[in-house]
Amino acid sequence: MVFRLVLGCGTTGHAVVDELGGESGDLLVLDADASRVESLRNEKVPAETADITDPASIDRERAPDVVFVGADDPETNLAATRAVTAAHPDAYVVAFTGVGATRSTRDALAGVADRVVDAGAAVLDDVAETAARGDSGRVHDLRGTLQAVEGRLAVFMHDNPDPDAIAAAVALTRIADGVGTPADACYFGEISHQENRAFVNLLDLDLVNLDPDASLDDYAGVALVDHSRPGVNDQLPPDTDVDVVIDHHPSEGDIDADFVDVRPEVGATSTILVEYLSQLGVDLDTSVATGLLYGIRVDTKDFSREITTADFEAAAELLAYADVDVLERVESPNVSADTFDVIARGIGNRQLNGSVLSSCVGAINDRDTLAQAADRLLAMEGVTVTFVYGFMDGTVYASARARGADVDLGSALREAFDDLGSAGGHADMAGAQIPMGVFDVLEGDAADELQGVLEDAIANRFFDAVR
C-alpha cells in the first residue's frame, strides 16, 4: 500500500492533503506548528509535530513512497527537501516552491527534488494527481539512472530509424540534459526513407550517425529507444551494458538494463517520452514537440491502429507546441525512382496464397523501399497481407503489412525467421533481417538462381507461419 508523507502544511500543502484524503493508502503530515497539527487531527488527518528541516525528525521506520513538501516559505521547503532526500533517498519527492521563491531557490529545489511545482490551481491539481499515482516511482528511477551515468550518454535508436525512434531518442537526450547528464541521439545505418530524411532536415534534429566499427569510449552510458536489445536491430555488441530501455514493442524474454520501461499496450514510444517530459518538467520546444507528434502519427497510422487513450492525450499535449506546417511538408516529399522500381518489381514478382501476397524484389539499394512497396501492394484488391523482401550487403530484409486480417504479423515473422535471423513488430506491421550465409557468394549470372532459392526458402516459411 502506498505511503504518502507531507512535510509542511501551508495553504498549498493543506489543499494537497484534502485531495489525498480520498485516496487509498496511508498518509502522514509533519509540521512544526503544533496548532496546525492539532487542527489537522481534528479533521481526522494523521499529523505529528516535527522539525521538517531535520533529517532525524522526519526519519520514519516505514519509508514513504511519495513525499510532498508543501510549506509556504521557500527556504523552509528547500531545507525540508534536502532533509527528506537524506532521510529517505528512495522516495519520490515533489517540492512546492513556496510563495515568492527566488530563481536561485527554484534552481536549488530542482537539483534535489524529483519534481518542482509552482503555485496555481491547475498546477495544484496536477500535484495531487502525481502524488496519488502509484507509478510515480518510474519517473524517480529514470531520473536516478540518468544522473548515475558519470559522463556522456549515447541514446541509440534502432538501425535505419523511423520517426518514432528518432523523436524518442531526441526527447530522451533532452530529459538527460535536463537532469545534468549530457547525451547524444545516435544510430547506425542510414536514414534513407524520403519522409524520414525530410523529417530530420526540416526539424534540424541533431543526430550522430556512427560507423559499425566506431568506438564508444567517449560514452559512459547507453540507452535504447524503440527497441530493447543491443545487437538486435542495431550494430552494438550484444554484450553492451545498457542503462536505459524505453520501448513499446513486445519483447521475447528478459531485458537486461538498469531501467526498463516497455509498454506494448501503447501505440508509440514517443507517447511514453511525452509522459516523462511532462512529469520531469522539461520544456517542450517546437522541434521536439513536432517530432514526437509525427512519431505518434506514423506508428499509429494517423491514429487508426493500436491507438490508446495515452496516445491521444500525448498528441493533444504536443499539438499546442508543434509546427503543423512542417508536418505537411514532411508528408509530401519526392519519391525516388528506386522506390517506384521496387514497387514495380513487387507487383511483377508477386506470389498469392489466398489473400496473402509475398514478393521477392531481388537486389535493393535502400531497405526502406521494401516498407513502401508493402504499403502500396496492400491496396491491391483481395489482398489482406503483404510480405516484400529483397537483399543487400549479405542480408535479406523483409517488410510485412496487414489490413483487416486475422493474423499477428509480429508473431508470424518471429515464428518463421527467429531461428535464421531477427524478426518482430506489431500485429499489422512487422519486419525481419536474415543473414544470407552462403547465398551471398552467388553473383552475376547466378542472380536469378539466388532469387529462386530465396523465394523457395523464405516465401514458404512465411506462408506456413501465417497459416
Subunit arrangement of the protein: single chain
Q: Give the overall silhouette.
A: elongated
Total individual domains: 3
- Beta-strand content: 15-25%
Main sheet attributes: strand count, strand direction, barrel closure: 6 strands, parallel
| Rg over CA atoms | 26 Å
By secondary-structure content and strand pairing, the structural class works out as alpha/beta
Instruction: Report the CATH architecture of the largest domain.
Output: Alpha-Beta Complex
The helix content, as a percent range, equals: 40-55%
* CA-CA gap between termini: 47 Å
Which residues sit in consecutive blocks of at least 5 with pLDDT less than 50? 120-124, 441-445
What count of helical segments does DSSP give? 17
Q: Looking across the biggest beta sheet, what order are the strands in?
A: 3-2-1-4-5-6
The total beta strand count reads 18
CATH topology of the largest domain: inorganic pyrophosphatase (n-terminal core)
> Mean of residue pLDDT?
87
